[in-house]
Amino acid sequence: MGLKFRLVVMNFLQYAVWGAWLISLGAYLGGSLKFEGFQIGSFFATMGIASLFMPGIMGIIADRWIPAQKLLGVCHFLAATFLVLAAPMTDYSTLYSLILCSVMFYMPTIALSNSVAYNALTKGGFNTVKDFPPIRVWGTVGFIVSMIAVDLLGYAHSSFQLYMSAAIGFVLSIYSFTLPNCDINKNVEKKSWVDYMGLRAFTLFKQKKMAIFFVFSMMLGMSLQITNAFANDYLTNFFGKNVLYQGTFGVEHANILISLSQASETLCILLIPFFLRKFGIKKVMLISMVAWVLRFGLLGTGNPGGGVWMLVLSMIVYGVAFDFFNISGSLFVENETDSSIRSSAQGVFMIMTNGFGAFIGSYVAGWIVDLAGWPKSWFIFAGYSLLVAIVFGIVFKYKHDPAKLEKVAH
């Protein structure tokens, strides 16, 4: 088995674990368990809580004491175990606590799996910039396949989605121990916890341009959690109660419909280098923000009947909304920060988007859903995205230099 294929398998399983429940959990919580919007939002906020500190802690352990591939296996084993314990629970407090524990160990594996891949490719004499993206894209494929499998097996509305995710996690846990070894450095120069956690990079907030960029990154991170938490619940439970739409594809197979979002994501990644060089980060981010307006607006106006084309278009637009913000933002941080804090600057970007953005967005979205109901909530979210775009266009000052981006856009 070739090295690249082994890493493809790792990435496929890594995101298949997530795809088994991330999109469908909201429908299960709101439908079978009858949880309120604020409660549903709290489950997705767990990813924000975990992203604030767990990747940093596990990064320290992988650098100093336990090789990354072994720690990856341990984390997946613990995350899967907590999912098994969570699956039969139906009361909010117990289920929430166990999902939180599972996510605490899953979220660090995203960075750990990347570290394992980079290490293996470097040792194998490959070019990480050239060879890693084609490997990583199989992670999105794994996410899509897992989503569709959960739907076709009838697990999207039950706790079996958690068992399925756990089963994949246990397989990856064992597989991780077979991956190429990652060296540890017990004699690494001692640093403070501030340095280890990447907090030194928060000095970037002293730069007005970077401070504005990170704040708006957090705001876009909020938009991402809104759609993750409620899209499936909306299609399955809101329209499922209406006799006009019962039995339609969008209601019965919401996971498959939503998987078009991830398919669009894989294609839009290929457009980013061209758009960055042509238009620059400000316009690319504005395109993302406008795409979020369309994403939410189309969800609010479409339906699984005659308006299903609007739902499909909303899924396609998602690729632009997500990639033009997430991938382009990461490249912007890479290009604008000093090499001495570049890695930790990426950590700040993740903390602002997947940490604070996810945490705040999940709770606020749940509160709005409880207060406004469907489909009005989608229009509120669209209005929020439009307001963010307008303010960003006014306050973010950046002069585009195509030559400066050449090194990261190719």
Descriptive notes:
The chain is an all-alpha fold and 410 residues long. It has two domains: 1-182, Growth Hormone, Chain: A (Up-down Bundle); 201-410, MFS general substrate transporter like domains (Growth Hormone, Chain: A), CATH 1.20.1250. 77% of the residues lie in helices and 0% in strands. The chain is built from 16 helices and no strands. The mean pLDDT is 87.
What is this entry, summarized?
This protein is mostly helical and 410 residues long. It is built from 16 helices and no strands.
Key words describing this protein structure:
single chain, 410 residues, mainly alpha, Growth Hormone, Chain: A, 16 helices, 77% helix
What's the count of strands? 0
Structural class, please?
mainly alpha
Main pleated sheet: none
Rg from alpha-carbon coordinates? 21 Å
Low-confidence spans: none
Helicity, as a percent range: over 70%
CATH architecture of the largest domain: Up-down Bundle
Which range does the strand content fall in?
under 5%
Q: What is the class of the largest domain in the CATH system?
A: Mainly Alpha
